[in-house]
Amino acid sequence: MTSFARWLALLVLCLAALPGWALAQSASQPLTVHFFDVGQGDAALVISPTGKTVLIDGGPPEARAHLEKRLRELVQGPLDLVILTHPHLDHLGGLSNVLRTVGARRFMDPGFDHPSEAYRDLLNVVGDEVGQVMTPVPNPQEPRTLLSIGLGDGAALTVLWPRVPEDPFLTGTRSDPNSNSIVAKLTYGKTAFLFTGDAEPDTEATLLRKDIDFTSTVLKVAHHGGRHSSTAAFLAAVKPQAAVISVGAKNDYGHPTSEVLGRLRAEKAEVFRTDLDGEVVATSDGTAVAVRAEKRGGPSLLVAGEVKPGPVAQGPITRGTRKTSAPRGRSASSTDSESDTPQRATGEPRYFSLKGSKVFHKESCKTLKRSKSNRTEYASRAEAMRERRPAEDCHP
């Protein structure tokens, strides 16, 4: 295929994915990523060449109706995977509604505990609505590898951070929930997308110490373009040709900051902003990516893929060196994305419910120890979440 023909095909596919256009399904779809305009928050939908769907974050509560509308337009049946990068309201606010109305087969979050009521409510919905709950735990048989989820036709989503228990969570940072955001690289042929959640400089520094190929065609900029993230060293490793900033118009935080915009310009990355450009759609055929914005005139930005096909990790992944903490008890995930039977990770707490109770507890819970009622033990936290909600006294 000539360069012009490839550009034209990608342009048509990108236009078809925008609001108001019908996306034609074919035997050989491109890989498409929708960066939704959800205001001051994050939400992105990945549609793989074989039709697998992954929603990464769910925006703030005020965008839940718009998010549900777009998902219903783009997705047939339940989502294959929903990922919450970290438990902050501007990333989880629309997820409960999505799980109830659109549905999801699997849910993944970092497993980093957070006391917010909104996060606890979401976990209750996950327990009621989702079949499998995952955390990005490396394969126990190969703990020095990265968790990679195949999406069909060579597309794969590899989780770079966190890697509990092989690498415990970062602590003592400016924002521990942000620092332990799920960071994932989506690869397809010579193209790649890097999703960073609200990763902090500590996250970026930890990752840069590892032998990982960060090169990505499109970068989802961390923390809405906040000045603390997207350090010059990290951007130099990613080498993005296009950068998407999911941010609310006239927000109170001054996002995106002039510092981050300047660092992106230094890397010669074309910047797309949802506050100015609306929904941004990136379409890859494995050799190039066409990026088009809902509110931006002119043709799509077409960039050639420069990623070396193959494993994201260049060698064994070694442990970090920062002060770290133990994980909250959650189920271990499998490298096989089709597995429906989570297994308890080594050292994971045991979970029990009492007869007639609607909640479950950690084995160490005082309420559990005081009661003489019959107990039911669960193989994992995920299994417990399917039948019960977490007890408020011990927060399992």
* Secondary-structure content class: alpha/beta
In total, how many beta strands?
A: 22
Count of folded domains: 2
Mean pLDDT: 85
Name the strands of the widest sheet in spatial order.
6-5-4-3-2-1-15-16-17
Spatial gap, N to C terminus: 55 Å
CATH fold label of the largest domain: Metallo-beta-lactamase, Chain A
Question: What are the key terms here?
Answer:
7-stranded mixed sheet, 12 helices, 2 domains, Metallo-beta-lactamase, Chain A, disordered N terminus, 22 strands, 396 residues, single chain, alpha/beta
Describe the protein.
- The protein starts with a helix and ends in a 6-residue tail after the last strand.
- The N terminus is likely disordered.
- The chain is of the alpha/beta class and 396 residues long.
- The chain folds into 2 domains: 323 residues, Metallo-beta-lactamase, Chain A, CATH 3.60.15; 40 residues, no CATH class.
- The chain is built from 12 helices and 22 strands.
- The strands form 4 sheets. It has a 9-stranded mixed β-sheet.
- Helix 5 packs across helix 12.
